[in-house]
Batch of 2 targets.
Target 1
Amino acid sequence: MSGFRHRHVLGLEGWSRDDVLQVLDRAERFHALNEGVVKKSPSLRGRTVINMFLEPSTRTRTSFELAAKRLGADAINFTPSQSSTVKGETLLDTARNLQAMHPDVIVLRHSASGAAASIARHVEAAIINAGDGTHEHPSQGLLDCATIRRHKRPGARDLAGLTVAICGDLAHSRVARSDVHGLGILGAKVRCAAPRTMIPVGFEALGCEVFDRVEPAVEGADVVIMLRIQKERAQGPSLYPNNREYSRYFGLGPRLLELLADDAIVMHPGPVNRGLELDPRIADGPRSVILDQVTWGVAVRMALLELLAGDGSVAAP
Ligand code: ASP
């Protein structure tokens, strides 16, 4: 029995330490498997996973598909441009029709915050939120925790004693919200920084310190997570004067790197706006673990799929 108490994975808000550790510990095993020659552990043979991505994705979609296949499940990719969504079918109708084909898991990415939660009320399949608007991206939060644990706390279970700085477009980042929850649950101290125009009202209530300058956030930090400027979500007047000023004051370059702890690591969920929020020399430099995040993404998504749809999964209401 997996003993996992969630039927869906909609967000990390409200998760317990045990919930997060169950995913991370299982992901450790899959990470080791994925480094071998035969990357298969067919515990989901006969199960079906539908990837329903209604917003662009590279890493998340590919890794969910790979994760499902490595577990032996049938993975179907639903492509909106070739489906009835372009004919005006509602999300709920599309989901109900997919449900009629009896998938075990639907992985949903959607531009509306709350989309995954609303679908979860109407289908029997387990729903994994692969990013809903500006709300949450729980599998990214978990893979970030897994990456940090491996690099900064090898052998330990949680992240107590670490300071993590999350810098950039807090206003639109679902990754920031999931990271703040996940890191906080595992005992890390979280500092967030953004231009004042990009700090949502009450953001500190999520459980982090909030700064309108990067320097106090990154000072002595063990980990820095840079966020992408989400141009596609920003409406109305620009939230910052211009790219040059943004990269000068909020981008991670050599000057800010000096302020971090000597052995600090640099992360970014991707895709990176090179030269805007992150200097390419740092993105490709020795402190960067950005590609390790991608590697952990497969292992963490295998763990989530197995916990939700494996034999030992508990289908609590
Ligand atoms: N790929 C992440 C997301 O979908 C981060 C980003 O797009 O900036 O939220």
Note: The CA atoms of residues 111 and 194 lie 22 Å apart.
Target 2
Amino acid sequence: MIPPTIVASRNDLNTALLSWRIANKSIGFVPTMGALHAGHISLIQEAVMTCDVVVVSIFVNPTQFNKAEDLAQYPKTLEADLLLLKNFTNVIIFVPEVSEIYQNNVLPTQIDFNSICERLEGKFRPGHFDGVAQVVEILFKIVQPQKAFFGQKDYQQVLVVKKLVKALELPIEIVACSTKRELNGLAMSSRNLLLSEQEIKDAEIIWKTLCFVQEKKDKYSIITLQKLATDFFNEGSLCLEYLEIVNAADLSPIKDWEEDCVCCIAAFCGKVRLIDNLVLN
Ligand code: PAF
């Protein structure tokens, strides 16, 4: 049982992983941008349970922010993050600088994501998934895990990462873990740190709306339910960016309820942009 080691360079990470690799032990990977919360901790717990050693990266990736102010306001709580991780054993915490990740002016990933990147988040955050794919590819190549753990809250991101792994033929299993929620249903997110108490209360309309959609599914046509759910959402005080019921595999608009589908919402709560989703039964 080895308590967490903290490394900042690729070299030091390789050194820390060497004995595990030589012993053919399984490496799990949990990429994060820090500001860790119970959702991240559950990913790490899952990784620790199923892998011999786990790398947790804490890296606020500048290339996935399409607005400079969003990057600037992204919460950075490294000290608290390290404290949260201190009791984990067989965990390596990788905290690189930007120059360590983007060493040789790396170009964006040249993968055809078949419009998955352009829908939903992609429409409102142009270039976001190029940045995500770029950093995840670099991190995967550095860590070379057998399994990587992602939160289902970022549903579209999970699809993009799965596509990336397939296109690059990387031998990595992508494990999507269920969304952790506050008592009022608000999906846990690092961005919640930026919300006031009142805003946390107001933001519960997102989860209430997802439940509304689940409850009313099958009783209405897709178009009608989308309209009813939008009206329901707009009774709250958040500013809706999108509410869409889409195909669970490729995020295209669904034609009938026979398709596996997911309802995805993005909205501003004050200045903070929140996303959430529910796979509909
Ligand atoms: O989900 C996140 O926190 C980020 O998008 C990720 C996967 C760590 C890449 O920067």
Note: The two ends are 41 Å apart (CA to CA).
